[in-house]
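Fold this sequence, please.
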Amino acid sequence: MDIVVDTHTHTLASGHAYSTIIENAEAAQRKGLKLLCNTDHGPRMPGAPHYWYFTNQRVIPRFLSNVGIIKGVEANLLNTDGDIDLPLDSDSYLDWLMVGFHEPVFHPANPETHTEALMNLIQSGRADAISHIGNPNFPFDIERVLRCAKEHNVAIEINNSSLLGESRQGSEVRCDEIARIGAEIGVYFTTGSDAHFCEDIGRLDHAIALLTKYNVDEEKIITSSTSRFLNFLLLRGKKRITEFEHLY
């Protein structure tokens, strides 16, 4: 399986990552990626940047090191209403909006609470993808949430870092179940390295292996071509990115 987009990466701006966007783009080029999503943590995460950081991403060139730059965020899910930590007016400045549970922002509760939060988030229309959804600290009704994600065209992330055991330890079992059920339901999947250092950009081997294990239709893996990813953004109601016209 050929993966050409890394949809989950962090820079120094996240407060606990160690590379610049230029270093990340250079690494992406070395790894053969065509598109790189810049998804620093939303403002409620300790050490994260403020609102203006995200809305000002328009100053970032569309290409760095010949890699297309997707301007995004990994926002924080705040409550059971599905609210996130960026105001609605920020969405028009962003190409790609991932949302996830993070313990410092949303204290782990019980499966019913987590399911309600995810369902309301998906139905709100703001999340393009749910990040590291296999975190065992946030169990939820997998089939119910994934069916909702399919209905609303929200991508489910297979997070390579989670599968390595470097963070969110114990995620492997739940990630496996999510991949299996997601393949049966036919959800859209995305793949993210969750890199916090440039050398981990494009590190997606475990995610690829898991999707391959369940014979996930390549058409449902939005990172398997630039066309699939960019057309998924159009499906989500995003504006066509003219600088990427040759990649659609």
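The first strand starts at residue 5 and ends at 6. The chain has one domain: 5-247.
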